[in-house]
Design brief:
The complex is a heterodimer of chains A (about 280) and B (about 525). Chain A is mainly α and about 280 residues long. Chain A has 13 helices and no strands. With about 525 residues, chain B is of the alpha+beta class. Chain B has a six-stranded mixed beta sheet with strand order 6-7-8-3-9-10, with helices on both faces. Chain B has a five-stranded antiparallel beta sheet with strand order 13-12-11-14-35. A five-stranded antiparallel beta sheet of chain B has the order 15-34-16-17-33, with no helix packed on it. In chain B, a hairpin with a 2-residue loop joins strand 11 (about 240-250) and strand 12. In chain B, helix 2 (about 95-105) packs parallel to helix 4 (about 140-150) and helix 3 crosses helix 4. Classes of the chains: A mainly alpha (about 280), B alpha+beta (about 525).
Chain lengths: ~280, ~525
């Protein structure tokens, strides 16, 4: 046993170097002022103050959360029926469908997003089709719709896979029992299938909301700079402006926000369980 | 007893992927009956239940429920409820919510629902459990909740699909009585599926014995046990001695070369039949005072009684010589290959079916590399065999020319006939080395193969008879020389359940009354 645990040493070192250390550094950067050297450090919370006192940043934050929420809701509404369909299909087709859902993820996200630019741009495929059926030129790219479309497209597989796995695990005899007790298809779905698949939906939400709220590449490419999100602000601070401390502070705020939202989701889930017990 | 039919199955046929699981089932079930569908797994009993529940569609036939054809009615509109094999309780609901599920769907008034749930909890003995999490209950408790959840809807018929299968023995017995009590109390039809014959006998008003998609017998537990209609039913329900015999005339049956009085009639003259005698109907008496003589073979203590095996017809046996010889392997000139084989006997009648594969097997011809122990193929067999008695040379060789020469003795092998037991046994002398015997992992099986020992029924050569091996050498200590090996059959044995102890080896007689013999038609399914 001891020998085997030694095998974990490189992994632990790796985790510290690439995960823990950067996190510590980001937190560290976020609480020091500009122009510090290693030897001369002054701590400050100015970076945080700056974020919360500037209305523009708060608007961007609000917009990010809103777009991420919209993305998540659309992913649930579109993903759930697909996942349900996959879980109800015959075993031999099920793996094929799951493959179809995951295939796009084999291609790099940047490449896929560029493809969407091609489709949505003024002379793109989408506009050609629309004008062919007489709907004329429509501004598709650089709209909020384009940003949400890009996010849904990129993150929906996570939602589908999570919901599908919780639906597939469900014992078929539960559905039979429900029918046996007089419930028709719709009632069985509402009273048995949906409640039992909620854990899958919750983890799907986590996997879609978190990357959506912090994404910066999709809004940049498909939003064309008009839909500046919090991820873009952070990117700018590091790359264009060079204010690492401020960028770090926003990152820490985002991390805290995400942790808080996950905590809220889990708490709601737990509360549902407790309610059941007290009923 | 009222006999109103509540369910009628008419010519139900079900196929899965071209495989017929139900072959034209006709069955009537009465009101307020506890009916058990009994049969081994795969007999179609669960399929029939699922067709009734509406979870499967029959390929053919109709189901008449309370006077109405319901084949096309979806499960949620059928007036019956099911207790599923693994309970299928809803894990996200409490005990009370599970039981109330069906009533809530019917949009019943909350107060009424609560009253009914409480009544059910009382019926199943789980008062005060309504707020408990179903996943935290024991198997027996979950079972009770599943029953309550179904019964609360006041169905006309309750279907139970092996509901006690997952419970331990003691709990299962308790639940058997419990289920029977509940059925009597609520007074509705229970259709119960099980493969446990004891469960069926304990609880049922009517047992439907099924096998291979057909109904073999329908009757009360007493009828099924005492008057089985065929061999399958007799052997599936309880322990029994089943003996082939001949019905000479009404009230006279012959088996094991003796004629006995019986109470059965209505068979053709000299019709071949199966005879059942239950172990508890046989009595062991002193030699000379009974109807069949035999010897006590085994005695097992079963608590309330002894399970005694009495052999009434001795088995058939054949003794052959096993010649243990020196190592008979040959090493090639370069020492890289070894080859071995032994002489063997073959019956002149078997010559026709003797091909190279068979020869290699019988001679146990093998070649191998002594360094790596890898097997080498025997590529060439040279022989000149005639269908005449005598000895013939045979030569086995490998690709690189390593060869061994052995003899095949073609003989006219007499076999031992045993008319009384309707069987015959044959075996051959054989040659083996010390190593082959001491290295054998399953010596009995190997001895049978080496001696080509076979047993068969005299009236049907295709039907083989089990052979047992006995020998008087110690396989670990065997040396060169000749040894006797005996191959024998079991003979006729009767199981007797008795409260009196008898010594193994005692010469006894068995006695029984004419009414203890039950004669069944041989049924070809």
């Amino acid at each position: 046993m001891k020998k085997i645990s030694h095998l974990a040493v490189p992994y632990v070192v790796w985790t510290i170097l690439l995960l823990a250390l950067p996190m510590v550094l980001i937190v560290f950067y976020s609480v020091v002022g500009e122009g510090n050297t290693i030897l001369d450090v002054s701590f400050t919370i100015d970076n945080y103050k700056k974020f919360f006192t500037d209305k523009d940043f708060l608007i961007v934050l609000w917009r990010s959360v809103k777009i991420a929420l919209e993305t998540t809701v659309i992913c649930i509404l579109v993903g759930y029926p697909i996942a349900y369909f996959i879980s109800r299909s015959e075993e031999k087709y099920r793996n094929l469908f799951i493959l179809l859902v995951t295939i796009p993820m084999w291609i790099n996200m940047l490449v896929r997003t560029y493809a969407w630019i091609g489709i949505l741009s003024e002379n793109g495929v989408a506009n050609k089709i629309l004008s062919f059926i007489g709907l004329g030129d429509v501004q598709l790219i650089h709209t909020q719709g384009a940003v949400i479309l890009g996010m849904v497209y990129n993150f929906i597989p996570f939602m589908i896979l999570q919901i599908n796995s919780s639906l597939s695990k469900m014992d078929n005899s539960l559905l039979e029992a429900s029918q046996d007790l007089g419930a028709d298809g719709k009632t069985t779905f509402m009273k048995i299938v949906l409640p039992l698949s909620l854990p899958g939906v919750v983890s799907g939400i986590a996997l879609v909301f978190l990357p959506s709220v912090s994404s910066f590449f999709i809004p940049k490419m498909l939003g064309g700079g008009q839909f500046f999100l919090i991820g873009n602000v952070i990117e700018n601070q590091f790359i264009t402006v060079g204010e690492w401390s401020f960028g770090s502070a926003i990152s820490v705020i985002m991390a805290a926000l995400m942790m808080l939202s996950m905590y809220v989701v889990r708490a709601i889930e737990k509360k549902n369980k407790v309610d059941r017990g007290d009923d | 007893m009222e006999n109103k039919k509540i369910i009628q199955f008419r010519n139900i046929v079900k196929e899965f992927d071209g495989q017929v699981v139900l072959k034209s089932i006709d069955l009537d079930i009465n009101e307020n009956e506890f009916v058990t569908l009994l049969g081994p797994s795969g007999c179609g009993k669960t399929t029939l239940l699922r067709i009734l529940g509406g979870f499967l569609d029959a390929n053919e036939g109709e189901i008449i429920f309370d006077g109405e054809e319901i084949s096309k009615v979806p499960p949620h509109k059928r007036e019956l409820n099911t207790v599923f094999q693994k309970y299928a309780l809803f894990p996200h609901m409490s005990v009370g919510e599970n039981i109330a599920f069906g009533l809530k769907i019917k949009k019943m008034n909350d107060g009424v629902i609560e009253q009914k749930v409480m009544k059910m909890l009382k019926l199943i003995g789980l008062e005060g459990y309504e707020n408990k999490d179903v996943t935290k209950l024991s198997g027996g408790q979950q079972q009770r909740v599943a029953i309550a959840r179904a019964l609360v809807n006041e169905p006309k018929v309750l279907l139970l699909d092996e509901p006690l299968g997952a419970l331990d023995l003691k709990l299962r017995k308790e639940m058997q009585y419990e289920l029977k009590r509940i059925q009597k109390e609520v007074g509705i039809t229970f259709i119960y599926v099980t493969h446990d014959q004891e469960e069926a006998l304990t609880m049922s008003d009517k047992i439907v014995v099924m096998n291979k998609g057909e109904i073999y017998q329908v009757g009360t537990p007493v009828e099924i046990y005492n008057e089985p209609e065929n061999r399958f039913v007799a052997s599936f329900i309880g322990e029994s001695n089943i003996v082939p015999g001949i019905m000479l005339e009404d009230y006279k049956v012959k088996f094991d070369d003796k004629t006995f009085d019986c109470v059965d009639f209505g068979f053709k003259e000299n019709e071949a039949v199966d005879i059942v005698i239950r172990p508890e109907d046989l009595d062991i008496v002193e030699r000379g005072k009974g109807k069949i003589s035999g010897q006590v073979e085994d005695v097992f203590f079963k608590g309330v009684y002894y399970d005694v095996t009495v052999e009434t017809v001795e088995g058939t046996s054949v003794t052959v010589d096993m010649e243990v010889v020196k190592e008979h392997e040959i090493t090639s000139a370069d020492g890289k290959e070894k080859i071995s084989a032994n002489d063997f006997y073959v019956d002149i009648e078997d010559m026709a079916s003797l091909d190279e594969k068979e020869i290699i097997a019988r001679a146990d011809a093998q070649a191998w590399n002594p360094e790596t122990d890898d097997y080498i193929a025997i590529s060439k067999i040279e022989y000149d065999l005639k269908e005449e008695l005598g000895s013939y040379s045979i030569k086995f060789s490998t690709n690189s020319g390593t060869a061994i020469e052995r003899k095949i003795y073609v003989i006219d092998q007499p076999y031992v006939r045993n008319e009384k037991a309707n069987e015959a046994v044959s075996a051959f002398n054989f040659y083996k080395t010390v190593e082959e015997i001491s290295e054998s992992v399953a010596l009995d099986t190997d001895l049978k193969t080496w001696a080509n020992a076979q047993g068969w029924k005299l009236n049907n050569e295709e039907e083989s008879v089990d052979i047992y091996v006995s020998y008087d050498f110690d396989p670990e200590e065997v040396k060169e020389g000749k040894y006797k090996v005996t191959f024998s059959t079991e003979g006729r044995e009767f199981k007797v359940n008795t409260t009196d102890f008898v010594e193994v080896g005692t010469e006894v007689d068995l006695t029984f009354f004419p009414e203890d013999i039950h004669v069944m038609k041989k049924r070809v399914f």
